[in-house]
Design goal:
- With about 100 residues, the protein is an alpha+beta fold.
- It is about 30% helix and about 50% strand.
- Helix 1 packs antiparallel against helix 2.
- The chain has a 4-stranded antiparallel sheet, with helices on one face.
- A hairpin with a 2-residue loop joins strand 2 and strand 3.
- The chain is built from 2 helices and 4 strands, in the order E-H-E-E-H-E.
Length: about 100
C-alpha cells in the first residue's frame, strides 16, 4: 500500500450539504477500493489562478490516503464524471 495525496476543487456555488455529500462520496470511493482515508482537510473558498468553466473561485479539499492503483483510478473516474468537481490531482507521497 502506498500513500497518496489528492487535491480537488469543488464548484463555489454548491450549498454546504451538497459539498459534504461530494466529500463523503470521494472518501467512500477510496474505502470501497481497499484504501484507507487518513485525513481530509477542507481549505475553503480560494481564488483560482485562471477561470475554470467560468468560475473564478473554488472550494479546495485535500485528502491523504493509503491505497493501491485501483483506488486512484476509481477516484479519478469519480472526479471526471462529477459536475461538482472542477479539477482533481493525485500524487504519490514517497516515504
Amino acid at each position: 500500500m502506498r500513500k497518496y495525496e489528492t487535491v480537488y476543487i469543488l464548484r463555489p456555488d454548491l450549498d454546504e450539504a451538497t459539498a459534504e455529500a461530494i466529500v463523503a462520496k470521494v472518501n467512500d470511493t477510496i474505502t470501497a477500493n481497499a484504501g484507507t482515508v487518513e485525513q481530509t482537510d477542507k481549505w475553503g473558498l480560494k481564488k483560482l489562478a485562471y477561470a475554470i468553466n467560468d468560475y473564478r473561485e473554488g472550494s479546495y479539499v485535500v485528502v491523504n490516503f493509503t491505497g493501491d492503483n485501483t483506488a486512484v483510478k476509481a477516484l479519478d473516474y469519480v472526479a471526471k464524471v462529477s459536475d461538482a468537481i472542477l479539477r482533481c490531482m493525485t500524487i504519490r507521497i514517497d516515504e
